[in-house]
Design a protein that fits this description.
Structural class: alpha+beta
Number of helices: 5
Radius of gyration: 17 Å
Number of strands: 7
Strand content: 15-25%
Strand order of the largest sheet: 2-3-4-5-7
């Protein structure tokens, strides 16, 4: 199947090994700076942080995303240290999502799935190729907890780069 994907989306397969380490570096940066980013949000009284720090967390939710999505363990009544800690945890749960969506990812506007092999859920060897509006093609591969390429289902209108080797 890899060779079929390579024939359909050769550029994305070729550049992905160079983009994945950049994504990993941003993930590491997000984890390291998460206490600072959460602290800035607390000091400003906002659940969003602008500038380059915005690239360190997800693009489809604020720093209170755990509360907004009613995820177990995120307390909507949290204040002070507890709220700061929830925001740190949210950044660490969704590191560098905005970077992977806007810098390494692509707009989903006008994109179409041109190849799908396997089942997306549960993911036990799921290959995809997506053709973007520009005509460029990107691939995605998911096997159990591993994920490579670009996410086939857009999140907030973007195909994110995914790089989860474990």
């Amino acid at each position: 199947m890899f060779w079929k994907i390579f024939r359909l989306a050769p550029l994305s397969v070729a550049v992905y090994p160079f983009l994945a380490p950049i994504s990993w570096l941003m993930t590491l940066t997000a984890w390291i700076l998460s206490p600072l980013v959460a602290g800035i949000s607390m000091a400003t009284g906002r659940n969003e942080v602008g500038g380059p720090f915005a690239y360190l967390y997800t693009h489809d939710a604020s720093l209170d995303g755990g509360i907004e999505e009613a995820i177990d363990g995120y307390d909507p009544k949290a204040r002070g240290f507890k709220l700061w800690w929830q925001r740190v945890c949210w950044i660490c749960r969704n590191p560098s999502g905005r970077f992977n969506a806007y810098v390494l990812g692509y707009s989903a506007d006008g994109s179409s799935l041109i190849l799908e092999s396997g089942n997306p859920y549960p993911p036990v060897s799921h290959w995809t190729v997506i053709e973007l509006k520009s005509g460029r093609r990107i691939f995605g591969y998911r096997h159990k907890s591993m994920w490579f390429g670009w996410k086939h289902t857009p999140i907030a209108g973007r195909h994110l780069l995914k790089s989860k080797p474990l």
